[in-house]
Amino acid sequence: MPHPTTHARLDGVIIDYNGVVGLQPTTAQWLRLARTAAWPAEGLATFQRAFWAAREPYDAGQLSDLAYWTKVLGFPPGASMLRELRTADTDMWTSTDDRVLAVLQRAHLAGLPMVLLSNAPRHLSGVLDSHAWRQLMTHALYSARLGVCKPDPAAYQHALDTIGATDPHRVLFVDDRADNCHAARRLGLRPLHYTGRPGDLEAALLPVG
């Protein structure tokens, strides 16, 4: 049986992790993290705002675990609490969408170069690299290792250089955030704003029939 073939006009794919390969955290997972932070259960929305307010420099590798959680909590957590926070935080981002992985498996078998480009802190990056699905990716680039987050153009350029593509329009960029897709389009990439429909990804990566 012959292997499937990918669209001839694609030289490679740059794909986001969270919201595409990875599933968004559940409310139960957010509540677990808030409890670990000793945050009042009725204040989950406030906790999430504090969580995201300092996230970009953390994802970019500019803050240590301790510095990040000190900003979120307003005080430095002890060593035990810090370990529990990092574990609960990491666990929120490690569930994957089997439907997406099935599409990526077919693209991988077809020989299409795929580069993961994710805004992720250092510890999470190491955990993601240890998962079996990571072998579907030619390379994985994480913001904490690059020192820059999407939608900074430098992040996209790192990925393009990794693929070795000379024509950005022959590279598909897949992300669940519209701002990241807009930035990719400005750089000449072919964006796919992923909204949770694996069929859209399949249509973009694999030929019909």
Helix tally equals 11
Rounded Rg: 18 Å
Mean pLDDT: 94
Number of strands: 5
Distance between the termini: 14 Å
> What is the makeup of the main sheet?
5 strands, parallel
* Strand neighbour order, sheet with most strands: 3-2-1-4-5
Proportion of residues in helical segments: 40-55%
Strand content: 5-15%
Overall body shape:
elongated
Query: What kind of assembly state do the chains in view correspond to?
Result: single chain
Low-confidence stretches: 1-6
List the helices and strands in order. EHHHHHHEHEHHEHEH
Structural class by secondary-structure content: alpha/beta
Short précis:
By secondary structure, this protein is an alpha/beta fold. The protein has helices spanning 27-36, 44-53, 55-59, 65-73, 79-91, 98-109, 122-129, 143-146, 153-163, 178-186, 198-205, and strands at 12-15, 114-118, 139-142, 171-175, 190-193.
Textual characterization of the structure:
This protein is an alpha/beta fold and 209 residues long. 47% of the residues lie in helices and 11% in strands. It is built from eleven helices and five strands. Strands 3-2-1-4-5 form a five-stranded parallel β-sheet, sandwiched between helices. Helix 10 links the parallel strand 4 and strand 5 (190-193). Helix 1 packs antiparallel against helix 5 (79-91), helix 2 crosses helix 4 and helix 6 runs parallel beside helix 11. The longest helix is centred in the middle third of the chain and has 13 residues, at 79-91. It is elongated, with a radius of gyration of 18 Å. The two termini are 14 Å apart. Mean pLDDT is 94; it is low at 1-6.
